[in-house]
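In practice, a research group might receive sequence data for several interacting partners and want a quick structural hypothesis before committing to experiments. The following worked case mirrors that situation: the sequences arrive first, and a predicted assembly follows.
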Amino acid sequence: MDVKDVFAAAEFSNVRMQKINLFETKNFFCDIYCLEPGQEQKVHAHQDEDKIYYVLAGHGSFVVGDETRELGEHQIVMAPAGSQHGVKNTSARRLTLLVFMTPNPNFK
Amino acid sequence: MDVKDVFAAAEFSNVRMQKINLFETKNFFCDIYCLEPGQEQKVHAHQDEDKIYYVLAGHGSFVVGDETRELGEHQIVMAPAGSQHGVKNTSARRLTLLVFMTPNPNFK
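A structural hypothesis for the assembly, expressed as tokens:
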């Protein structure tokens, strides 16, 4: 049984945002994103893949489409396929996210 | 920007487990599962869809394949396509899950 603890899996770096993979199949992948203050996943888009960001701990600034919004713990947002999206830790504390992306572009 | 709060979205019933849909696209759906003590999602399988259960609050008994395990807050488990899986709230308190399933069988 493939069980993980999201906070035990989290790893941070002083250099850049870290992505830790929890699960991956031909259909999706599920990662933890770990952002120290000031770190970000730059705004980007992928034509075919939907993404979900769920805030496990902390808060930060999220971009989806032409909107930017501060989200905190227990909030969840979807970035639909084709939309611009990204996240920046604009706070003074660590930001930890649970992220799903589907389908898996490695299996096109 | 499609933002939700997972705990604000949760709804419980005395009759049966509740599923509240947060997001749905042709690629996936993402739901909150709300189980009062004793409620369950009976063990079942779907040939093509992977599922993830993430425990937002509480704890319960999870089946994946031929294993049964008690999981609690911050734990996450994957039930791969084709595997038997289910969940039962064997505790005395509410169990709230974030659930992700892909692909979306409604768009085969």
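Before designing any experiment, note the following. Residues 6-102 of chain B form a domain with the Jelly Rolls fold (CATH 2.60.120.10). Chain B has a mean pLDDT of 97.
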